[in-house]
Amino acid sequence: DGGITQSPKYLFRKEGQNVTLSCEQNLNHDAMYWYRQDPGQGLRLIYYSQIVNDFQKGDIAEGYSVSREKKESFPLTVTSAQKNPTAFYLCASSPRDRGVDTQYFGPGTRLTVL
Amino acid sequence: EDQVTQSPEALRLQEGESSSLNCSYTVSGLRGLFWYRQDPGKGPEFLFTLYSAGEEKEKERLKATLTKKESFLHITAPKPEDSATYLCAASPSNTGKLIFGQGTTLQVKP
Among A18, A35, A94, A100, which residue carries the largest CB count within 10 Å? Predict the structure, then answer.
């Protein structure tokens, strides 16, 4: 059963802590993405990776870090430098095959800073 | 600057009352226009991709159309289960990225 999984579904963090959000896909997609969603706002791109061992900053990368050591995995770390991390985080992947850019999303992780 | 704007922000319909959602875009070299459905607390679910002006795609009660400046999502005889937020996104040329609008939250009352 192919798809994108994100864990955990809910995450609580104390101020000053780093936390890592997991994203795994078994769709054999080359590209993976991280978005942040706040109430009443569209999805904003944090980081994206089009190939293993390479990634680029999106529009709001400050306070976040990523790695892409395996094709199927793209973890996101929310660092203590992120001033307002409470949000809904979405991971997506795309085949990038013949220019097709359709992105498919995981179920999301809701992060709350206590 | 690449930009996607959706209207209205919220829409309330009676069951069976057809309507349209609008997505206006300003994107350099559009590669594709995407529609997603998002239920509360869940990830967006892919609905359609449109690639060129004049293209139309249908799925059940939904029909998406594309012009050179905007896209419409037409909902025919909606049911309460169509209630969700509908997101529009555009892909500028050679970026691999999507630019999302803020979404339209649709509520269909029985």
Answer: A35
Measured between alpha carbons, how far is A81 from A78 in angstroms, rounded to an integer? Answer: 8
Q: How far is CA A110 from CA A2, A11, A105, B1, in A?
A: 23, 6, 14, 30
pLDDT digits (tens, 9 = 90+) for A32-80: 999 999 987 889 999 999 999 999 999 999 999 999 999 999 999 999 8
A104 neighbourhood in chain B, CB within 8 Å: 46
Q: Can you tell me which residue has the tokens 């220019």? A: A99
Residue B52 in contact with residue B29, Cβ under 8 Å? no
Mean residue pLDDT of chain B comes to: 95
Is residue A10 pLDDT above 70, yes or no?
Answer: yes
Predicted confidence (pLDDT) per residue in B81-105, tens digit = 999 999 999 998 777 789 999 999 9
Of B4, B49, B96, the CB nearest to A96: B96
Instruction: Give the B window 65-94 contacts with A, CB below 8 Å.
Output: 87, 89, 91
Strand partners, A12: A112
B40 and chain A in contact, CB less than 8 A: no
* Contact present, B30 and B55 (Cβ < 8 Å): no
Say if the Cβ atoms of A48 and B96 lie within 8 Å. yes
Q: Where are the alpha helices (DSSP H) in A1-114?
A: none
Which residues are registered as beta bridge partners of A4?
Answer: A25
Enumerate the residues of chain A whose CB falls inside 8 A of the CB of residue B51.
none
Nearest to A33 by CA among A62, A75, A69: A75
